[in-house]
Amino acid sequence: MRIGLYPGTFDPVTLGHIDIIERALALVDRLVIGVAINRDKGPLFSLEERVGMLQAECAPITARLGGEIVVHPFENLLIDCARDVGAGVIVRGLRAVADFEYEFQMVGMNRALDASVETVFLMADARRQAIASKLVKEIARLGGDVSKFVTPAVAERLSARLSRQAAP
Fold first, then answer.
1. Which of 99, 161, 90 is nearest to 130 (CA)?
2. Is the predicted pLDDT of residue 60 greater than 90, yes or no?
3. Which are the contacts of 158, defined by CB distance < 8 A and separation ≥ 6?
4. Looking at the predicted structure, is the pLDDT value of residue 140 above 80?
5. Any binding-site annotation on 62?
6. Contacts with 130 (C-beta within 8 Å, 6 or more apart), sequence order
7. pLDDT (tens digit per residue) in 97-109
8. 73: which of 41, 91, 92, 147 is 20 to 30 A away, CA to CA?
9. Name one GO molecular function term (predicted).
10. Is 129 labelled as part of a ligand binding site?
């Protein structure tokens, strides 16, 4: 069984993430979405909320495309997470050249830690290349329309969260 790991913070999950998930699912039998517990980033959504959003967004994908998607929180090294879930490949999405520089370094470090785990890069669809969770949150905070960047369910969650934060 080919198992792939697609890691990220997914705060929140965007249409860019969903694009990569759908395309990665075609490459593996099981896609594990590793939801990073990254306290340094100060996520807007809790780990449980991010896991729940991903599970909800991935259910229609597996119904439509088949395959298996598992959402798996992790706080250890990425390479250790890959070992924990039995992944032979780490899937990373690239939006721009700037992403490649960082990812190139990560691949080198991961290969030094465990050369048996490959990394595969998937370029974001041209319509999704500018989407970044950080920018989506900023647009939503300033009252902008995020419907081009996230699903309606995620847009609703963003709006509700930011409304609660703004309330006195």
1. 99
2. yes
3. 12, 44, 136, 137, 140, 146, 150
4. yes
5. no
6. 95
7. 677 888 889 999 9
8. 147
9. pantetheine-phosphate adenylyltransferase activity
10. yes
CA-closest candidate to residue 62, choices 13, 18, 3: 18
Which superfamily is assigned to 3-126 in CATH? HUPs (3.40.50.620)
Structure tokens at 11: 């705060």
Q: Where are the domains of the chain?
A: 3-126
pLDDT of 35: 97
**Structure confidence at residue 61 as a pLDDT band (50, 70, 90):** very high
- The catalytic site residues sit at 17, 41, 95, 133
Tokens found for residue 38: 């990254």
Placement of tokens 């999405």 in the chain: 93
In sign, the C-alpha dihedral spanning 156, 162, 166, 168 is positive
Asked if residue 130 belongs to a known ligand binding site, the reply is yes
**Cα dihedral sign for 132, 135, 140, 145?**
negative
Q: Helix 15-25 crosses helix 47-65 at what angle (to 10 degrees)?
A: 50
Q: Is the pTM of this model over 0.85?
A: yes
The CA distance from 131 to 121, in Å, is 17
